[in-house]
Design goal:
- The structure holds two protein chains of two kinds.
- In chain A, helix 10 crosses helix 11, helix 13 crosses helix 15 and helix 23 crosses helix 25.
- Chain A has 26 helices and five strands.
- By secondary structure, chain B is α/β, with parallel strands linked by helices.
- Chain B is 29% helix and 15% strand.
- Chain B is built from eleven helices and 17 strands.
- In chain B, the strands form five sheets. In chain B, strands 1, 4, 5, 6, 7, 8, 11, 12 and 15 form a nine-stranded mixed β-sheet that branches.
- In chain B, strand 16 and strand 17 form a beta hairpin.
- In chain B, helix 6 runs antiparallel to helix 7, helix 8 packs across helix 9 and helix 9 packs parallel to helix 10.
- The relative contact order of chain B is 0.20.
- Classes of the chains: A mainly alpha, B alpha/beta.
- The interface between A and B is large, with 112 and 104 residues.
Chain lengths: 599, 455
Amino acid sequence: MIRVQRAFAVVLCLVGSGGMARAGETGLTPAGIDRMIRAEWKKQKITPAPPVDDARFLRRVTLDITGNLPAVETVRRFLADRSPDKRARAIETLLASPGYVKRWVAYWDDVLMGRAMRPMPTVDRVAFRQWLTEKFQKNTPYNQFVYELLTATGQNSTGGSLARAAGMEMPAMLAPFAAQETGDPAKVNGAVNWFLKYAQTPADLSGAVSRIFLGVQIQCAQCHDHKTEKWTREDFRRFTACFIRTRPVPVDLNRDQPRGIRRFELRDIERPFLRDRPRFGGGEYASATPAALDGTEFLQSPNRRRALAAWITAPENPYFAQAIVNRMWAHFMGRGFVDPIDDFRPSNPVVMPELLQKLSEDFVAHGYDLKRLIRLICNTQTYQLSAAPSRNDPENLYWSRYRLKPMGPEMILDALITATGMEEGLQRVAGTGAEAVKAQILRQLIFLFDVDEEFEQKDFEGTIPQALLLLNGSLVNNGASLLPGNALAQVLALPGDDAAKIEELYLRTLSRKPTAAELKHWQAFLNAPRTVVRTDSTPGAGRRLQRGLGGPVRRMGGGPDPFARVLARARLPEPEPKQQAFEDLFWALLNSSEFIFNH
Amino acid sequence: MTRYEHNGMEPHGQQEWQEQPQQEACGGGCPGPMDLFTSTIDRRGFLRVGTGGLLSLLFAQWLDPRAACAQNGRSGAARSCILLWMNGGPSHLETFDPKPGTSTGGPTRVVRTRVPGIEISEYVAPLADCTDEMAIIRGMTSREGNHQRAQYLLHTGYAPTGSVTHPSLGAWVSRELGDPQADLPAFVSISGPSIGAAFLGVQHGPFVVNNPAQPPQNIAYPRNVNKERFQIRQDALSLLEAQFAAQTGDPKVQGRRDVYSKAIRLMHSPRLRAFDLTEEPTAVKQAYGDNNFGRGCLMARRLVEAGVKFVEVVLDGWDTHQDNFNRVARLGGIFAPAMAALIRDLKERNLLDSTLILWMGEFGRTPRINGSEGRDHYPQAWSAVLAGGGIRRGIVYGQTDETGARVVHQPVTVPDFFATVATLLGMDPDKTVMTPIGRPIAITEKGRPIRELIA
């Protein structure tokens, strides 16, 4: 153990400070964080952006904590509230909401499983999400969450439809045709599905563990020793050797259900250290001595995986806390102390290392409480700056303005559905099919909006297919159209003049009230003369090719239209000019950068 | 999400998950009739008619597509590339490296081809007339026997490492050969998602056509929108965008505007008709084959004609652990006529010299025939085919032993294969680009082009 601590002490030099937190020693406050950052601004002669206004703050913090837009009523109440602590209270409410759990389950499902992961019949993503949900519902301390994940044993699934591999429940109407769930839920530990993802590739697993939980890209040393960095191939082999005694054992011996999820039980081969024979999966790592990054060897440990997990999550381990603090800071502030978030190394400079150190110590001292960390960050004045330009911080390294963040696919889908009231409309006409329609849209969105979770997009511009989806796709177009029960129908049914309706559309999309200039502009827009465009219901419309300028505009639909069924059942009134003007305003709001970015 | 049927994990031999069989496109009814009126207006006609249009400004940069194709100072002869991707790992023994009369050859018979001495499997007989345009590589060898890893390897040239995601060949081609001002994407993938551009940036990622019988998604105005209304919407949006850009002063907002402009330019591009197969005569469509792969190959030809730089066309179903011979016979009946039609068609249009065709999958199949009349994964020795632009034609390169298990002459590693392809396309195989974590990544992993394959 002495050796371990000495090794840690060496590592601590990375973040430029000594000494670890003892419980209760620190009590970092948002104001304390702001003081440190302001001092840095002063040193760098940085002028920060002005504070963000209430409406934009609420939208931002709601998106960051729950992944969805605030409800119109919530915005109105928040704006009317005159109490000085309303922002802090809003943060508390969000942390206690079901949206918090939903958001962070989705976040960790992305980080661990990957958004673009090809479905594997051995990985039950539904069970994995259920496990995550339990953890976040209980606000499980982060060290415990990681320890349980890294040491998980048990069965992956109760079996059932392969749709679960893609993280989808089979729609009830199709359930009779799907493979049945036969397993005993009590034996299932959803966490093992993460290991099963890597069952054939222990090197990828150890790389992911090191990268995600320690912020160290040790897997770079998989292929070659780095000239300038500290890790060697041998370090990587020894780290990977910690995982090769973990094996999935099949539960279903007969193959009566070839199309279902395949059940495995994850087990460790527990025995004193013996050199493993090179074999399937273990391969070149079998002969290595299992060890942690600082050289701590697990030769004597009967269960090397548990030994490693204990090392990773130990309070003395400096990598562990700083990696999660950096990750969370980057989530809220748009950029971490270290960037990319999972690449701590001597040659990658840390911005304000002393603040990272303080936050890490505070995080450890307060029981690895993620909600506390979020509360600390969101209550800072730094987090509550506007996205307007700042001075002398061109790359915004010092968080002197809020960084525009593009929404991911799940967030865009949720925001679009919330803003357009599509949920209600879907329920009304599609009934139980609504979930299936949503799942179909989500697949399309994920396909188009996917960015590899390992790469943070530096300069988000989006892609052409994404732009086409928002310009012409049925989700936005039908969402902005007047359909029974949807948002526009509700807005148009409101009492009041055009101004009241414009305000309502703004609150639904941008979560703010329109400015006087905007109101004036849109009032004129709504009442300008225009020709009504009737829905083209020609047979074959949507199948033919559009011919560009000059030629008759022909339609080219392509792909399944998840709303076709919904629209077919809806009885649409004859459109009026003003109604179409409202649709166009709504459409523009949904396509706007102010809507698509978290700002 | 993905239409690839394979997963990365087969802990117990051949257990595999296969999705529902790929749905063939609806035969009749899908494509609309040719529009005789517009099809008689030539491209310049479109421009003239269009200059009065509201969106004509977007066409300012659009000139003759052939002008964009002509690039100076590039050594390779090929200017575009079509990858025919055989997903699942095609059996070399039933395609381009048959071993009749041996213990491992199975019932497969061979046919003679136009080039004396080159024999190929009966299942790919329609290509016998085209071997004079092809270079058959029989010595492909790699070490990845897992679908997911091998698919990555054969799309990017690198084995997956976990530390960095590599760009696919199509993304490199888009970056190196693509014209940023072109109104069609430089990299199109048909019937499969291909692999993305990673750190090269999303603008070099594949534009995916899910179903070649239908045009790309979301390319047309919605059904309740016409040209005028589309413009009203654009004007309304411009106001919001200008305001937000002024408030934030953030270049990301302008970046997003640029992508929207490109999308709108694509929507209104006369070259969109490259995606419309209804313009093709019935005889041509029949030559390529009345199936999605055939249609994909036909679309690939049209896209290359329109200036697209890299087209991937996917044929799935090659993971023949069971019933190998019947299944390869069926798959051969799909791809061989399509590939032969593609080669002939490009030649007739004088495009074969400037178009490199690649035929390959992620690995070969075991010489040993298993108990289910199948063959399992086999990366040690397998075949790939080059055709068209810049290659030495009418040759076989490399040789396996009499069982097809080992490469005994002229082995070709994946890095060398990629270096050869890069060279043929006029790209420097050693050109590097920095990743976000500051690591230089080259187009190929220290590969060296094989001179014998280059004319």
